[in-house]
Amino acid sequence: MFRVSRNPAIDTTAKLVVVAVAMFAFVFVIMVPLYNVLCDALGINGKTSGQAYTAVQAGVDESREITIQFVATNNEGMPWEFGPEDRIMKVHPGASNTTIFHARNPLPKAMVAQAIPSVSPSRAAEYFHKTECFCFNQQPLDGETSAEMPLQFIIDRDLPRDIRTITLSYTLFDVTAMAGDAVAAR
Amino acid sequence: MGDHAHGPAKGLSRWLFTTNHKDIGTMYLWFSFAMFILGGSFAMIIRAELFQPGMQLVEPGFFNQMTTLHGLVMVFGAIMPSFVGLANWMIPMMIGAPDMALPRMNNWSFWILPPAFLMLASTLFMEGGAPGFGWTFYAPLSTTYAPPSVTFFIFAIHILGLSSIMGSINIIATVMNMRAPGMSYMKMPLFVWTWLITAFLLVAVMPVLAGAVTMMLMDIHFGTSFFSAAGGGDPVLFQHIFWFFGHPEVYIIILPAFGVVSQIIPAFSRKPLFGYDSMVYATAAIAFLSFIVWAHHMYTVGMPIAGELFFMYATMLIAVPTGVKVFNWVTTMWRGSLSFETPMLFCVGFLILFTIGGFTGLMLSIAPADFQYHDSYFVVAHFHYVMVAGAVFSMSAAVYYWLPKWCGRMYNETMGKTHFWISFIGFNITFFPQHFVGLAGMPRRIPDYALQFADFNMMSSIGAFIYGASQILFLYNVVATIVSGKPVSDDKVWDGAEGLEWTVPTPAPYHTFEVPPKIDPAHAHT
């Protein structure tokens, strides 16, 4: 067997130190990426994809109608006015739909926000395709201005038939401090 | 080699610079007892506040700091170092080695502990108070919403993690390389076996804990977003990482306790341990399973049903090797020539109460039922049955069992038995009613509660004060034994005791087994 040192105690110790260092690295290089990959691949955790979906022309399923509910929440300490134009939409799977969310920054300073989506039931997340979403990017807004933020989405035709209602919730976070330099440049 | 016959150095430097496994073991044991008293006094504040409904004594924020520090100090300061101390004292003597394999590292792994806990305790006096986010320190409560003292908390965790890793590397290096000739692995005493497996668990998961707190540190100070949803991270990720450490951690706490009980029950049953081989395999099986059950602590985060089922069945599987152990202990006692000195009383108390804690654990493993039990006092009752009646009872048993060997004096048996009975009764008065209030819906970590829980909480508090007071009796008994106990001269101390540690003179000399002992090949494990 491979030996690091002729002193058996030092040999065992050196090998165990390698194990400990490897386990520390394991957390960063395996656990964190693996968690994100698994959540993406399996659509668990109610996360929708962070990338724009390229629509595949597969026709519209007129046989059923899905109710989409929109929920907008401000994270603690976020002062913006934030809400959907339509609270409820009825859509057919396969059809492209557009709606907008309204945001207004009531403070006299420029701020940056990031919306984080969550889909309920979480099983529906992998069938909820966004072709365009304000949540893909950080949203900067000057003081005391408002904006209309677009959302385009397609419900997959393969959506399980027992799901008739999908709730898409956005939580708006203040990321001005994180985006620091970008705001200063404006 | 000429000066090997010398005794310990004199004065403070003996303790500061010592590389002697017995000295270091003694320091670990005293340090862990001090932490036990500190963590216990935090518990007394918690129970005093919960004596009656409504806000009585302390601010809610301070109450949260008490629950947090109680957990951290008891797990990392009292239970873990106490078993490391026991390992230091006993493992070289049990395998016929002159000392630990890495004596200087041994000195370091003890001496970095007191500063770590001093730093952790000092957060109580800092601006914004001590950490109040629970011993599980879930993000973002421990990152975005943490008090400034969290940075000191993180540093303390780093240091005590380092201490644990160094201590366990030392134990593995000792057991693998320094066994007396003829002592094969399957002849090692079970305490050595359980510690060997525990040490591997520690080397594997303490770095994971270090990784978790490092990520917290980076989120707080360096603008990363591991656990912050706003930056694309995920708070649930924290829980996965924490419990990937945390579940093996609870076996790190209990496996050495299994080892202690497996030494003491045969001694007072005057029979060899029943099913030695199956005990070893069961310990290894528990250690393996501990890595694949972590998410049973987080059934309510919104896992897919397949995940809930996997973790539920894997968790239930642990009951099998644990059951093997419990039945082996009972079978060891079966038709034995039993006597009930204090160590045996604590072991029998362990056996009964740990089994109750195991059963409530099985109840908690049922995913759909756990949605009701989650974060309630039922969970508090469960883990105190396995942590206190499991780990602490077995530690008390170990101290009574080996104290005469350590200091050459016999403790006061009447006082020891009194300590046991007060502990046993006080413990059950404290924690048994918590099952009921938990099932009825009382949440944990809250300083106030609904009126219908008042009677049971008052019982719990009275029990806790009784249990706490009984530890003073324990301290008195140990000190009185060391100072003026009746001298013991018999090497064996206990007539039924087996093992190499009973072949050295009493009290154990400063250096033992400088010449490796001969292991009788016909004599199996002891």
Automatic annotation (TrEMBL), chain A:
GO terms for cellular component: plasma membrane. Exerts its effect at some terminal stage of cytochrome c oxidase synthesis, probably by being involved in the insertion of the copper B into subunit I. GO terms for molecular function: copper ion binding. The keyword Transmembrane helix applies. InterPro entries: CtaG/Cox11_dom_sf, Cyt_c_oxidase_assmbl_CtaG. PANTHER family: CYTOCHROME C OXIDASE ASSEMBLY PROTEIN COX11, MITOCHONDRIAL-RELATED, CYTOCHROME C OXIDASE ASSEMBLY PROTEIN COX11-RELATED. The chain crosses the membrane at residues 12-35. The keyword Membrane applies. Pfam families: CtaG_Cox11. NCBIfam families: PRK05089.1. Belongs to the COX11/CtaG family. Keywords: Copper, Membrane, Signal-anchor, Transmembrane, Transmembrane helix. It comes from the Bacteria. It is found in: Cell inner membrane. This is Cytochrome c oxidase assembly protein CtaG. It is a single-pass type II membrane protein.
From TrEMBL, chain B:
It catalyses: 4 Fe(II)-[cytochrome c] + O2 + 8 H(+)(in) = 4 Fe(III)-[cytochrome c] + 2 H2O + 4 H(+)(out). InterPro entries: Cyt_c_oxase-like_su1_dom (IPR023616), Cyt_c_oxase-like_su1_sf (IPR036927), Cyt_C_Oxase_1 (IPR000883), Cyt_c_Oxase_su1_BS (IPR023615), Cyt_c_oxase_su1_dom (IPR033944), Cyt_c_oxidase_su1_bac (IPR014241). PROSITE patterns: COX1, COX1_CUB. Signal peptide: none annotated. The chain crosses the membrane at residues 28-48, 68-89, 110-130, 150-178, 190-218, 250-268, 280-299, 311-331, 343-367, 379-403, 424-442, 462-483. It comes from the Bacteria. It is found in: Cell membrane; Membrane. Pathway: Energy metabolism; oxidative phosphorylation. It is an enzyme of class 7 (translocase). It is a multi-pass membrane protein. Keywords: Cell membrane, Copper, Electron transport, Heme, Iron, Membrane, Metal-binding, Respiratory chain, Translocase, Transmembrane, Transmembrane helix, Transport. The keyword Transmembrane helix applies. Residues 15-520 form the Cytochrome oxidase subunit I profile domain. PANTHER family: CYTOCHROME C OXIDASE SUBUNIT 1 (PTHR10422). Cytochrome c oxidase is the component of the respiratory chain that catalyzes the reduction of oxygen to water. Subunits 1-3 form the functional core of the enzyme complex. CO I is the catalytic subunit of the enzyme. Electrons originating in cytochrome c are transferred via the copper A center of subunit 2 and heme A of subunit 1 to the bimetallic center formed by heme A3 and copper B. Belongs to the heme-copper respiratory oxidase family. This is Cytochrome c oxidase subunit 1. It comes from Chromatocurvus halotolerans.
